[in-house]
Amino acid sequence: MERREIDTPEAWNRIVGELPLSSSLQSWGWGEVKRTSGWKPVRLALFDGGEPVAAAQLMTRHLAGPLRLAYAPRGPALAEAGLLPRVAEQLARAARGALYLQLEPPLALEEPYDVPAFAGLQPAATIQPEYSILVDLEAGEEAVLARMKSKTRYNIRLSARKGVTARIVRPGEGDAEEAFEAFLALFTETNRRAKLLQHARSYYETVFRAMEQPGGAAFISLAEYQGQPLAAGLFVAFAGRVDYLYGGSSREHKNVMAPYAMHWTAMRWGMKHGYRVYDLWGVPRVLTPESHAYGIYRFKEGFGGRRVRFPGYVRPLSPLFGPVQTALRWRKNWVNWRTRGTPRDVL
Fold first, then answer.
1. What keywords does the record list, in alphabetical order (predicted)?
2. pTM of the model as a whole
């Protein structure tokens, strides 16, 4: 394999977007988003016989002093899964000096969710949500509605009858600032109720701006009732998928079912623009009513998608890998306890 660093958004997104196994988190824009929280992206494309067969937006970040990690969020993008060991070998060379290399390839494993073994890689907990629900958009509106649970279908139609209106707002449009403010207020309100942490305002502003990029799009789906914003989501679209990254809703006027209108409007936008998959982005690993996010799962499963698993792998690059991994897990447990009173992860 030949490894090349790609330094323009157009060229990078063309390579990543055309690989069969890909993700918006491997797009150029996502690297710019992560710069705001201290990550440095390096975009490496791998060629075999002159054709691109893999690409990894490799993020590096210092943990303490000279200690750093290397990570490909929902990546690398691949022509096919069997290439992962060879690609990991190339990326390990590029990440030399890091404690370890973490990969989360976009394999979307279906039940029974068994994680495939790859030479030179160890299964690991993921940084991105490990499980999600994917809705197939290719069959069109009627088929998508037919696959939904009857209650979800009913609530979508009820929201319209109650007078909820929903619209799509892209960056640069006249009402983009107003829509972003409404999204951020609802998102912050929801996180406060659920005792969840969130990034600074500038992070979400960068998502909205930077993910509007060559070969991709960002938008807010905003649902309102009598002029009042009740539900909003920040979405990104890339490589055939619409991804629901962040969202929130108000507890006011719950009976008008605004979140259903918000999602259905985003799905319809995706179908209109030729996207194949709607990723609801994050459901619990363990499906029990006691789970902090079980209600989220019940809501999302109603849209009729399939639950999939995105596996994680690590390749240790230093003898310090084990102790550092343990320390990072302890730190995450402490943050969870301080925030929600439990060491368990949300998902």
1. Acyltransferase, Cell shape, Cell wall biogenesis/degradation, Peptidoglycan synthesis, Transferase
2. 0.94
